[in-house]
Structure formats: C-alpha cells, structure tokens
Amino acid sequence: MIDVLFLPMVALALFIGLLLLALSQDTQRRRIGHVSLSPREKAQRRMPAAGILAGCLLLLIWYEGGGFGTLLWIGLISAAALAVSLLLAWRPSFFSIGSRSFS
Amino acid sequence: MEPDFRRSMGWLHTWAGLVLGGVLFAIFWMGTLSVFDKEIDLWMKPATRMVSSDHALSFDAFRSSLEEASRLKASFWAITLPNERDPVLHIRLRVGARFHNHDVNPSTGRDLPDPGTLGASGFIYPFHYSLRFRLGEWLVGLAGMAMLVLCVSGIVIHRKIFVDFFTFRPEKKPGRMLLDLHNVAGVLGLPFHIALTFSGLVIFGAVYFPSGTHAVCPHERACSDEDIKVSLPTPSEKLVVPFTSLDEIAVKARSVWGHDFPESIIVFNPGTSASRIRVLRSDRNQVVFLADKLVFDPTDGHLLSRQPPLRPIARTERFLTGLHLIRFQNWPLRWLYFASGLGSCVMIATGFFFWLNARRRKQGVAFGFRLVEGMAAGSVTGIVIATLAFFVANRLLPLGVNFAGYDRAALEVWAFYFVWLATFAHGWLRPRRVWIEQSLTVGGFALGAVLLNWLTTSDPLWRTFLLRYLWPVAGMDTLLLLGGGVAFWTGSSLARRARETAYD
C-alpha cells in the first residue's frame, strides 16, 4: 500500500511546494487578481516551499536510493511545475482557493 | 548583463535552433519513442505477444543451438532470458561477419516465425543515435553540442527566468503564447534536456575523441573483452572436451552474487580451446549501466575472473550511460522520461513555430521563409506522420511479402522514408494549408494504426486492457488514440482560425 501511494503523495507534496512558490510571485499574483506581497510575506511562503522541495528530495533518496531518488525528484518536480503552470493558465480560480488556504 | 552579449546569444539561439532544430526534433522524437521500444516491438510483432513463462528456464535446454553454433564456427553464441518488458527468449550468434538472431518462445522452446519487421528496437532506437546513415553519429553529436549551446543561450536571453517560471498565457496572441510554451517547456524540462544531451555525448565520447581510448587500448576489442582474453573472430583451435552444463554455471554465478540470477550467457568461440563463458547479471535494479560479469572455463566450469569494482570516474560514466539508456526497471521513472521527451519535442517545435509566426506577415511569400516552413513541417509533423506510416505499413504488409528484391522489414523502412520525404514536399507545395493538413494526417494515421491493429491481430483495445500480458499493446493503442485526438483537435482549430482570418 505504501509502495502504491508513496510517489503520488510525493508528487502532491511537490505540487503544494511549487504552488506556494507560484503564489509568492508578483507576476502570478497579478494574473489571479491578488495584491502583491511584502518581502516578509514572500519569505514566509518561500521558506516552507523550499523546505517541502528539499524534504521530498531527501525522502525520495531515502526510499528509492540515490540514483532513482534523484531522477524521480527531477521528473516529478517538472511534472508538478507543469501542472501548476497549466492550472494557472486555465483554472486560476483554483489558485484563489489555494491562496486563501495558505494565507 | 551586457545588452550586446544577450543580443549575440539571441542570434546564436535563433540560428543554431533553426539550422539544427530539425535534426534535434528527429533525435528527441525517436529517443522519446525508444523509451518504450520493447512495448512498441510487442505491438509490431504480434507473434511475440505471449504470457511470460513463470517457471525457471533451463539454459541447457538450448544446448543443441550452442552445438550448432560450434559446428558453424560462430565467434560467439549468446542467450538472453525474458524479462518483465520482453517476454521472448533471444539467441544471437555471429558466424563470420553475419549476425543471426532467433526469437524463441520460452514456454515451448520453439523458434518464433520471422517477424518481418525491425520493430522499434531495430529501427526507431538506432535512428535516435545514428539517424541510420554512415556518419550519423557525428551529426547527432554536433546536434547534441548545439542543444547544450541552445540551453545555455536560452537561459542567457531569458531575462525573467524565475519570474516567468510558471508563466503560460494561452489567452494571449499566438506569438506570445508560442513563446510562453517554448519557455515553459524549456525551463521546466531544463534538467532533463541537459542531463540527457550530456549523457548522450558521453556515451559516444570514444567515437568523437578516439585518441584517449586508443592510447589506453590500442586494440579496441582487447579492452572491451579484457576479461575473455581472446581475440575475435574465431580462432582455429578445436575443442577436445565437451561443454560443461550451462545450468551448473548459472548456479555457480548465483552463489557468487548471492541471490541474483543471470540475465544472459555468452559463449565466446564455442567449439574451440579458446572458448570462454561470460555470465551477466541483470542490472535492472540500478541506474548504473553495469552488469556484473563473471567468466568461466567451459571445460570444467570453474570461475576464471570477476569484473573488478570500477573506479569513481568509470562509475560516473556508467551512471550517465545508465541514466540515458534506461535499462532499469522503474515504471514511474520510465513514464516521466517519456513525458519529458515529449516536452523536449514541444520545446523544439514551438521554437520553429515562434520563428515562423514572427515573420509570416512580412516575409510569408519570401523563398527563405517558404524553405524554412517546408523544412519545419517535414521535421516536426512530417517525422510524426512518417513514424505512424511505419506502424501502418507494419499492420498492412502481409508476412513474407517481397517487392523489387526488398523484404517486408525493408519495405516498412521504405514506407517511413517515402512518407517523410513527401511531407517535406507537401510543406513546400502547400504552405497555406500545410499545418492543418499534416495535423489531420497525423490524426488519420494514428486512428488507422489502432484500427489496423485490431483488424489484423484480433486484439481490440478492450481485450488488451483486460489481459495483463497485453497491457503494452493497450498502452500503445491508447497513446495513438490520444495523440490522434490532439492532432485532430489541432488541425480543426487551425482550420477554423484560417477561415475566420479569411472572412476578416
């Protein structure tokens, strides 16, 4: 069961990390009609985002080994970033919900 | 950064992409398909669609084939066991300068009929790294270097790489939207583009820089078969004692490795006193491309040598090779490679489209523009159509067919090249309609391939989904349907937009 759910959960965590990162950028916030953040607020979002991304890398290396873990992290982070980009383009309302949730 | 420097990088990015973009698209497209080469083989060779044998196979059951190889004075005889991706047992031997391959049903031990096709592993995969011509590896190397230059120059000219990290605006004008798509595909897949391009160059390092290899190994074969300590081809000495049991050797190999079973056994110079048996362990549970090699004496079966541990630099080279060749067994990673490969294709194609779109209004009728548009059409949609024509020809040509001296496998390849050439001509002759018509052709060929697979093999999609051993065929059909659907949608969208523009 853990084997089956492990990668989807890591992918979800990476998605959340990148979502936080996107919601800390002025350009993306303007696109979804949100006001810009102060430098302090940006840091408040970027620190946990960086932590999630780094944590996922360590988790993957621990679970899958150095070679597979690193390659999976690179592949999943690209896929998660693509998902964030496409949602931002076609379903910006999703980000409004996300932004409220993480405020 | 100096504006002049950025401008010169922009010039380099544009022209390197324009000149070598077509070759790069061909390399990345074929490489992306090669990620699933065994699965495509299964689709193209219906006789190999079989349930994997769940009982332990005996190497000695194929002893008669080995003895036949001895009689033929083969320089080597090799047997490779089936695995999760390839249900067929393979026997290969080399007699003189000729290689012979036999696909064997592991359950019955009988040879499978000639598939009459090169399949993906015999055509698509070699095309990826050699373009199937004499100096193709050099052109691939040049394109690989250009790809690295394109990556670096792309980063330099992209002023807001972090700010625009997630920026894709489909609602904007086509030019802006194409550039966004190009940037998103380029930036998000950047680690993949660089890692795969660099590792590809490393694999062919000895081809591009042979002096280093020659300095260490004056005779190339002497290095690659150092553990065998024999020279190829066949020496003249005759064997005086019979072969020991291959199964016993497999058991000994297993005791050396702990629990792993041999994946393949190669008998060099069978039937001579210079004979040696090399046993290879599966390397599918690791990224590093390194099958632990054991060498045995064929007369009494004692262990002669074991591959020594690699030094760090050699191990790094093996890691990069393994990272590129994807021999490992990791399905999520394999799918991520496939998706990233498609992302690379999107990046290259949108680079072409952006260039064309930016100049269409002012230079649309100029010879240079028409030339580039035809080249782009043949390079992007053209090679996709040609690949689909290869699949369609595979399902349409009857087994054993021969035309003008060419067998079925050669005719499939001719179909590929003929259709590919036709797409270039189409691009030059019908510039206004080329993208619409070629997109619709992609959709038609993809749908046709799925229908033909159903009609010629009685394996419709619902059946292949239900049977576990047919999942690779189901995956191939599903991707063809999805790709065909996207192509139909693209073609009809472009046609609608062209009509709206004409009314305006």
UniProtKB/TrEMBL annotation, chain A:
Top-level lineage group: Bacteria
InterPro entries registered for this protein in UniProt: DUF3325 (IPR021762)
Transmembrane regions listed in the UniProt entry: 6-24, 45-63, 69-90
Keywords, sorted A to Z: Membrane, Transmembrane, Transmembrane helix
Organism for this UniProt entry: Acetobacter lovaniensis
Stated name of the protein: DUF3325 domain-containing protein
Automatic annotation (TrEMBL), chain B:
A Pfam family: PepSY_TM
Coiled-coil regions listed: none
InterPro entries: PepSY-ass_TM
Keywords from the named record: Membrane, Transmembrane, Transmembrane helix
This protein's record includes keyword Ribosomal protein: no
Membrane-spanning ranges: 12-36, 138-157, 178-209, 335-356, 376-397, 409-428, 440-457, 469-489
Superkingdom per UniProt: Bacteria
Name the UniProt record assigns to this protein: Putative iron-regulated membrane protein
Organism: Acetobacter lovaniensis
